[in-house]
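Q: For a teaching handout, I want to show students what a protein-ligand complex looks like in token form. Below are the inputs, and the small molecule is MIG. Please produce the holo structure.
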Amino acid sequence: MTTDSFDFTDSNQQVQVVSGNKSMTFSVIKPEIVQVFQDYGKSTHSYAVEGNKSVDTKYAVAKDGDVITIKTDALTVKVDPQLHVDVYDANNHPLVVHYDGQRESINQNIDAAHKKIVRSEGHEVAAVDEASHAYYEVLNQLDDDEQFYGLGGKTGFLNKRGYEYDNWNTDEPRPHIESFTHLYKSIPILFGIKQGHPYGLFFDNTYRSHFDLGKESSKYYVYAADDGNLNYYILGGDTLKDVVADYTYLTGVVPLPQRWMLGYQQSRWGYSMDQSRVEEIVDKFEQYHLPLEAVHFDIDYMKGYRVFTWDTDKFADPKAFLTSLRKRGVRVIPILDPGVKQDDDYEIYQEGLKKGYFAKNKDGSVYINRVWPGKSAFPDFGNPDVRKWWGKHCKFLLDNGAAGIWTDMNEPATFDGDMPDDVVMTDEDQPSTAKMMHNVYGHNMAKATYNGIKNATGKRPYVITRAAYAGTQKYSTVWTGDNQSLWHHLQMSIPQLCNLGMSGFSYAGTDIGGFSADTTPELLTRWIEAALFSPLFRNHSALQVRNQEPWVFGKHVLDIYRKFLNLRYRFIPYLYDCFHNETQDGLPVMRALVLNYPDDRTVRNMNDEYMVGDDVLVAPIVQQGQTARAVYLPKGQWIALDTGVEYAGQTTILANVPLDKLPIFIKKNTLLPWGQEVEHISDQPDKTMTFRLFGDAATYTHYQDDGVDFNYQNGEYNEYTVTVSTSGDCSVDLTHHGYDGQYKTVNVQLNDQLVTFKYDDKTAKYVAEK
Ligand code: MIG
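A: Here is the structure, written as tokens, with MIG included.
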């Protein structure tokens, strides 16, 4: 190819590079974000990125021989006549460099005939044999010193290098293990640290796609898709935090949850089979003085698994019952599946049928597959009218007293084979197929549910979804689906939640105790400890497994369980602050250490410790029988929460961890809000708040609002700045006063004394008591 046919046009931050008969468009979104687009004639509607994210950005484009360079203050993007893309950071360190060679086969040392034999027994052979006819693929060089993170809640470990993954939402009942390539969610955000330099690549394509992150070869990594446009964002910045923030800038942050959503929740498939069983659970929580915010109602509360119905044989008066629980401080979260029972006497089915709201076969008939209600139709959630319709029906549950909605089976899961790719669905206002809409099916169901709740209640909606795509975090919290009561799954919950956090899902959790298989007293205890700061804090289990409520294993386990629930509640104001910060800086609450300490090589694949915000480090036991463990403390000084002992960082210490202990370390010179031990989180403002000092001096910004609705968006919130200086002077300032529930009393717990401040109505200031 001659350079003559290689050129660019540039207008309004869009640079179109043309090479022969091919072209590629580079959109400068902001200095740290450049979008790469190649048109394959497919839908350009994005489910992940809503609205125009471009901001006025200074940039330069130049052609020098065989290279066109687009340069912002943060990124340099170079394009060659083959439309290969290379990216450098502001200091010219390579971030993404294309790979020129061919893909190579994983050497299995077998010939074609033997591969056939292996296959005939049902085993897999390396996918690369088939990969050569990929629709398109992007190959980039892999450095020996390069680590990968993100991709949502995939199985395995924190650093994704050395594994391959698929993006195709799938319900997987077998025990989730690290060799699985895909689960319920598809979040195609890849973060890399190349020779210490961070970057991100977000491939916004809902069709089935594939990552090979150095499994096939140590020379390159691959992104490949089955269909769609080539559409990805290059993310840059000085730190990994900056790059993660770029991603949440594009796809959105988790909106502030209601305060009670951070409290403890109990669930089990089967509770809602009858009212007395639910009552018994709530009674026991009271009797044992265990905090409880919500009980989740699985599919059993419905009439024959028909969505938007309530079985009045089981619950004579659901509204009265839910109201009575609510008076006792307990909310109910019922489940919804997408499948609508094919039943001519059922209003929801009739209505959906009449309006053409269900996914269809190619011949125009309604697509039917079997799920819990039997033969069912599947709402076409990509159609905005269907989402409105679904949202309106959510009111039925809310009117009966539901405090949120749990959405399940929305991969969608089906019993009689997978939904074929050619099932007809809608992509907003365009006809489409399951091939494109499958991975956003759960996303659109969650969005519909969120908007339905928001319109009906005006409160911050509580939606939990199993399936998700990039950007679903704006509408819903997620859980990691059907884990099992296995030690491996306890261990894996840490990297899963940390990678979900980096992938935008700051509000996520796993089924505490494990969903399938029978838990043990030791496993349940270690799980409630390890999950102590898991934003979504729910014990859930399957129908047929052994019970795993806190009391089933006797007093010893119960006492430990209660102790940790109480400790969780002490941290709720801190968690709420972390969520407030997340809405501002786009960074997760529960964090991999690598996010806070990206330059520390020791933590780049740390799978058994995590941090909460910037200041709290947690090192749980995740192996059976262990009563001591190594704890790596990063740079700085650390104070053990239970003993107050101070440790120097960048060392590994040995912690004694009997069954009733969880090692928690606070970064020295931190003030932490310290909540109250309550059995239910109140919607009324707290009268008192306490801040605890760890170290000698610190400043802390604390956020407060009504914890329920959206009034904070109109300035109805308070911000407090608490300062303790090295000389021991402390002050409490109301640095923003927009919410009239300000604390009457603020305590600051210093190392040797408690200083109490009273709010003075006349001056609107906090005054220390003598
Ligand atoms: O295939 O509704 O992941 O949490 O309890 C089982 C019953 C369907 C799967 C969910 C699980 C839930 C269960 N559901």
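A: Two things your students might notice: DSSP finds 14 helices and 48 strands in the chain. The longest helix spans residues 441-457.
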